[in-house]
Amino acid sequence: MPSKGKRIVRCPSCYFAFDISYGRAMACSGCISLVQCDMVKCPKCGYEFPLSPGRKRLL
After folding, report:
1. Which residues of 24-55 are buried (b: 16+ CB within 10 A; e: fewer)?
2. Structural contact between residues 42 and 51, judged by C-beta atoms closer than 8 angstroms
3. Where are the domains of the chain?
4. How far is the C-alpha of 9 from the C-alpha of 30, rounded, in Å?
5. Which pairs count as long-range contacts for 51-59, CB under 8 Å and 24+ apart, including other chains?
6. Each residue's pLDDT tens digit, 21-45
7. Fewest Cβ atoms closer than 10 Å to its Cβ: which of 2, 28, 33, 49?
8. Model-wide pTM > 0.85
9. What is the C-alpha to C-alpha distance for residues 12 and 49, in angstroms, rounded to an integer?
10. pLDDT given for residue 4 in this prediction
């Protein structure tokens, strides 16, 4: 049974599955836009991707 409050995402680069809270605490610790950010950074490989699958990121 899934725990309430957990939001699991999977990195599209390395396929590592992690709780978004864990990813933000570990990989986004130095980022100034942590509060209003809709991006996720994988704590395993460092790949940054949009939280919304349909959103395109400009490079």
Report:
1. beebbeeeeeeeeeebbbbbeeeeebeeeeee
2. no
3. 8-50
4. 21
5. 51/9, 51/20
6. 888 787 777 777 656 778 888 999 9
7. 2
8. no
9. 8
10. 64
Length of the chain: 59
CB 9: neighbour CB atoms within 10 A? Answer: 17
pLDDT band, residue 51 (cuts 50/70/90): confident
HEC secondary structure over 1-59: CCCCCCCEEECCCCCCEEEHHHHHHHHCCCCCCCCCCCEEECCCCCCEEECCCCCCCCC
